[in-house]
Design goal:
The complex is a heterodimer.
Chain A (H helix, E strand, L loop, with lengths): L3 E4 L2 E5 L4 E7 L6 E7 L5 E8 L4 E4 L2 E6 L4 E6 L8 E8 L6 E3 L3 E6 L1
Parallel strand pairs in A: 2-11
Antiparallel strand pairs in A: 1-3, 3-8, 4-5, 4-9, 6-7, 7-8, 9-10, 9-11
Chain B lengths: L4 E3 L2 E4 L5 E6 L6 E7 L6 E7 L2 E5 L6 E5 L5 E5 L8 E8 L9 E2 L3 E5 L1
Parallel strand pairs in B: 2-11
Antiparallel strand pairs in B: 1-3, 3-8, 4-5, 4-9, 5-6, 7-8, 9-10, 9-11
The chains are: A mainly beta, B mainly beta.
Chain lengths: 112, 114
């Protein structure tokens, strides 16, 4: 069974800081990995998707990397803003039609 | 672009009642997934369907059942509701074409059991 771990569980920083959120998984035979954002009581917004053949993806201030051999992914947030405050979840998928295995998330608070 | 539609958005039921949650996937998506997210928890996989057949099963209680219909929409039926069933229920869809697409999630149905 795939286990996904996210560190840290919570993070509180002043705005403007560059952040790194970590995700590790036990089974390196993944199909792809997704990072999601979730606001309290709301749905899951997909931020970035990295296919197993890729090393990283970028979207605006967000950059996600994938190292299958070590079973790790990182989400880098540049120049954090209060609007970035949310829970960030990583999830991976073992096959084309497979389920997503989620981590417990990192709860991020960016204060002005 | 069309997204995954879930209904209802909110549902309040009493213990031992039944509930039906509906999910309408993105057009041309053939795979549907159901997840349950309790307060402060990560989403837990319940069940998935591909081309109207169950493709995978997770931690879905025996009191729950689900199916995917010919138009690819899916329904999650929940019976003998318990207080612990109170959660946010997400549906996601994806396409198997072209090697597969990412999962796209709906906004969820918040079920409260009193």
């Amino acid at each position: 069974k795939q286990e996904v771990t996210q560190i840290p569980a919570a993070l509180s920083v002043p705005e403007g800081e560059n952040l790194v959120l970590n995700c590790s998984f036990t089974d390196s035979a993944i199909y792809n990995l997704q990072w999601f954002r979730q606001d309290p009581g709301k749905g899951l917004t997909s931020l970035l998707l990295i296919q197993s053949s890729q090393r990283e993806q970028t979207s605006g201030r967000l950059n996600a990397s994938l190292d299958k051999s070590s079973g790790r992914s990182t989400l880098y947030i540049a120049a954090s803003q209060p609007g970035d405050s949310a829970t960030y979840l990583c999830a991976n998928r073992g096959s084309t039609l497979g389920r997503l295995y989620f981590g417990r998330g990192t709860q991020l608070t960016v204060w002005p | 672009a069309a997204g995954v539609i879930q209904s209802p958005r909110h549902l309040i039921k009493e213990k031992r009642e039944t509930a039906t949650l509906k999910c309408y996937p993105i057009p041309r998506h053939d795979t549907v997934y159901w997840y349950q997210q309790g307060p402060g928890q990560d989403p837990q996989f319940l069940i998935s369907f591909y081309e109207k057949m169950q493709s995978d099963k997770g931690s879905i209680p025996d009191r729950f059942s689900a199916q995917q219909f010919s138009d690819y929409h899916s329904e999650l039926n929940m019976s003998s509701l318990e207080l612990g069933d109170s959660a946010l229920y997400f549906c996601a869809s994806s396409s198997s074409e072209g090697g597969g697409s990412p999962l796209h999630f709906g906004n969820g149905t918040r079920l409260t059991v009193t």
